[in-house]
């Protein structure tokens, strides 16, 4: 099981790194006034995330199957380790954010010249890949910089909660399948009970606010520099959300158990 755990750990890191780095793509689009092109490229981040998830999900479910044959197997501990991978992946994205803003800005500019993504990919040379080291930038994080950005505490808190719920959604359904083996199939397919709550909060409170923040930066030149700090703040709240997911794993699992027993 250790090999499965290591693989799931790294795939979970990739998923959360890719999802969090989508902020860098959006910010790069704002900086060079190509937000529509930037948003069209988010499919790349989604592709990376979903490909990793396609492999990670069955591997994680393997822990539940193994626990049926070995009662001494500590499923909960393994799931918590995977949640740690989510936190590490998000932290890696925060560190890489300034670098990827520079890289994505270059990619967007090149895409405009190439005309299509396949042409852009085929035009990349080894020398150009070597030159990417020029775009490496160190992140700066000073608490005093985040005091007057116009982002409410309630918005940050909601972003933490939504991230925590999304992070724990699938894992809580798998652990619920372990808690109620007689309803394991139903439980393993019930992550929507948890993720649905996060989707409602995201759609109503988070996404519109992020859209307004981005639009403000497009229309106000002096706000563009602040946007990077705001995205950094949002990514930090995502990181805190992955940590909060540790406390939500058991309650979410028991909630799923209760609901499927009533159905």
TrEMBL record:
Pathway: Cell wall biogenesis; peptidoglycan biosynthesis. It is a multi-pass membrane protein. Keywords: Cell membrane, Cell shape, Cell wall biogenesis/degradation, Membrane, Peptidoglycan synthesis, Transmembrane, Transmembrane helix, Transport. Pfam families: Amj (PF10997). One of its GO terms (molecular function) is lipid-linked peptidoglycan transporter activity. The chain crosses the membrane at residues 6-23, 35-55, 75-101, 155-177, 197-218, 230-256. InterPro entries: Amj. Involved in peptidoglycan biosynthesis. Transports lipid-linked peptidoglycan precursors from the inner to the outer leaflet of the cytoplasmic membrane. This is Lipid II flippase Amj.
